[in-house]
Specification:
- It comes from Comamonas endophytica.
- This is M48 family metallopeptidase.
- InterPro entries: UTP_pyrophosphatase-like, YgjP-like_metallopeptidase.
- This protein is of the alpha+beta class.
- It has a single domain, classed as 2-Layer Sandwich (Zincin-like).
- It has 7 helices and 3 strands, in the order H-H-H-H-E-E-E-H-H-H.
- It has a 3-stranded mixed beta sheet.
- Strand 2 and strand 3 form a beta hairpin.
- Helix 5 crosses helix 6.
- It is globular and about 50 Å long.
- The chain binds zinc ion (ZN).
- Zinc ion binds next to helix 5.
Length: 189
């Protein structure tokens, strides 16, 4: 009787909330809950993505981003800055940040584009970094997360949706207290 009482759910309790995976079907979220409960998330991710990328500096990140942009968004505005940012707290939808400021230069209006990538992506597989960079580059052209936006993401990286899911799975793993899987945490600031 008492054991049963101990196991009965709290009033209003529902299955564990997975904030990074809310937009996915309930059945898929249940599969992730089962995976987390079995402790198999780390092994699954590491098997799929054995290696971290080597883009350790802002300069390397800029060149990587500029090359992707040159391939797919040639007509877009120039990127002034691309950098890792340890102040971005990766929660919910804020995987990266993109800013476009209109500057008046000699009477002409020009846009200044910056992309900042959460510093945790220094220590991830290249596929995860690519997903973030593609996402932020797509925002140069499409502001909202609508159909046109995701079409552009998939055009730049055909496996975009799989990578985004796997990034969100990794964030869910970290959220549940799991260890970082690819190298040390960035130094705190
Ligand atoms: Zn976005």
């Amino acid at each position: 009787m008492s054991a049963r009482a101990a196991r009965s759910p709290q009033p209003g309790s529902t299955p564990m909330d997975l904030p990074y995976l809310r937009s996915y079907p309930a059945q898929l979220q249940d599969q992730v809950r089962a995976l987390l409960a079995s402790g198999g998330t780390a092994a699954l991710l590491q098997r799929k993505y054995p290696q971290a990328h080597a883009l350790r500096t802002d300069k390397a990140l800029y060149e990587y981003t500029a090359e992707l942009k040159a391939q797919h968004l040639r007509k877009g505005a120039t990127l002034q800055k691309v950098a890792y940012d340890s102040k971005i707290h990766v929660v919910r939808n804020a995987l990266g940040l993109h800013t476009s400021r209109a500057l008046v230069q000699g009477g002409k209006l020009s846009a200044r584009h910056e992309i900042r990538v959460a510093a945790m992506f220094k220590n991830t597989p290249e596929e995860f970094l690519r997903m973030i960079v593609v996402h932020e580059l797509a925002h140069l052209r499409e502001k909202d997360h609508d159909k046109a936006f995701y079409q552009l993401c998939s055009h730049m990286e055909p496996s975009y949706h799989q990578y985004e899911f796997d990034v969100r799975l990794y964030l869910t793993h970290l959220d549940a207290g799991g260890a970082r899987l690819w190298g040390p945490a960035p130094a705190p600031q």
